[in-house]
Amino acid sequence: MFKKLFLLVCLPILAFSQSAPINIDRIVAKVDNYIILRSEVEQLYIRGQQQQQPVSKCQALESMVVNKLLVAKAEIDSVLVEDKEVEAQLTARMQQMVQLYGNEKNIIEQFGKSLETLKSEVRSQVKEQLTAQKMQGKITEDLKITPNEVRRFFNRIPKDSIPEIPTEVELAHIVRLAKVTKAQKDELSERLLDYKRRVLAGEKFEDLAKEYSEDPGSRQFGGDLSWAKRGQMVPQFEAVAMKLKPNEISDVVESDFGLHLIQTLEVRGQEYHARHILLRPDYNRLDITDAKKFLDSIRTEIVKDSIKFEKAAKEFSEDKQTQDGGGILLDPQSGSSKMALDESMEPTLYFTIDTMKVGTITVPLPYRSEDGKTGVRIIYYKAKHAPHKASLNEDFERLKEFAIMEKRNVEIEKWFKKATADVYIKIDPEFESCNIFGKDRISGGVQY
């Protein structure tokens, strides 16, 4: 039960959908001051079907009770999620929607609502989900697993229950980003210096940040980045922020994120509190011609075997996350170099690989980095692994992921046994047959 329960709690934060309206709605569960509506159970049930993670309505309700219990205990234990984290998640979700639907106009036509309206509608849900995840992380934060534990986990699996590993691939890429011209930098610098002059003339820094900053995580807070420890921010930003006097404003500072105007509010030992206004180039206007020509020439040298792909990636790739590893792309869940060739893969990558043969390299293809930068990349199809029964030798990282999940589930189950005694839980008689948490597992707490 708890393996399924754990997976439900960790489903991606919210999925915007256009579910059929529920005619009859009422409260079906209460966890302290938090309520669960019948319509919410129905929607999670439907979403599970849509995402190929089918669950029963009992399991849907149980997972929602778990989330509410985590949130209720987080409130008791002062485990808080900052508004900035919520805004960052909301912004990321909106960007995903824009990529999925093509542009904002398509989203408005699909949902009949603007991005801002969608954000406001789900803000509290996102905060609750993040709080539940943070509490779950706190419960299991000290857990570690050894190679021997992974081995014992695998040996306990019955022969006929050893998991089937789907088709996996190993991929690598070399990225080159479009360059920002001096004229574009000068234009942004002049705008920032104008903001500085306006602050010195009496306007409030935070008001200008709210109006002009292009940092979605801090904009609504007047550019406030809260306290940061040394080494937490990019070096260019930190070097300036820690030298400024309280309330002093910097000149223009350039980093990988764009151009900043920084105001340090306070420095305390190895910590500092600053705010900023960030301006970023319009990456859609950047010319990728030079980047494409460069990768064309690199690809030619690799195909001629004048240089190995791995060496070329280390020397020339501008993707810092993969550069040192020779351009190898890692599975975001397991951290393994083997990626499942299925719908969980980035769509553009999936459809590109689907037309390739192992050992080949693509021509330069359009690329957009996680932080929105424009460029091109070449992709190397390094290897393909056929579906097979899991083995320790070939699938250690994936088995390690399963083993640590089992260990987390055990720890979380122990926590639930204690938490249900501290938190009031009432379930509607309609769901009495679901036996939430199981009477043999949890004592006290749950009432019908």
List the SSEs and their pairings:
Blueprint: H1 2-9, E1 27-31, E2 34-37, H2 38-50, H3 57-76, H4 83-101, H5 104-111, H6 115-140, H7 147-156, E3 164-165, E4 168-177, H8 182-200, H9 205-212, E5 224-229, H10 235-241, E6 253-255, E7 258-268, E8 271-279, H11 289-303, H12 309-316, H13 320-323, E9 339-340, H14 347-353, E10 365-368, E11 374-385, E12 388-389, H15 396-422, E13 425-427, E14 446-447
Parallel strand pairs: 13-14
Antiparallel strand pairs: 1-2, 1-13, 3-12, 4-9, 4-11, 5-8, 6-7, 7-8, 10-11
Helix pairs in contact: 1-3, 2-3, 3-6, 4-6, 7-15
3D structure, described in words:
This protein has helices spanning 2-9, 38-50, 57-76, 83-101, 104-111, 115-140, 147-156, 182-200, 205-212, 235-241, 289-303, 309-316, 320-323, 347-353, 396-422; strands at residues 27-31, 34-37, 164-165, 168-177, 224-229, 253-255, 258-268, 271-279, 339-340, 365-368, 374-385, 388-389, 425-427, 446-447. The model is unreliable at 1-15, 17-22 and 439-444 (pLDDT under 50). A hairpin with a 2-residue loop joins strand 7 and strand 8 (271-279). The longest helix is centred in the last third of the chain and has 27 residues, at 396-422. The chain folds into 3 domains: 2-145 and 393-447, Orthogonal Bundle (Triger factor/SurA peptide-binding fold); 167-179 and 286-386, Chitinase A, domain 3, CATH 3.10.50.40; 182-280, Chitinase A, domain 3. The chain has 448 residues and is α+β, with helices and mostly antiparallel strands. Helix 2 crosses helix 3 and helix 4 (83-101) packs across helix 6. The strands form 4 sheets. Strands 2-1-13-14 form a 4-stranded mixed β-sheet.
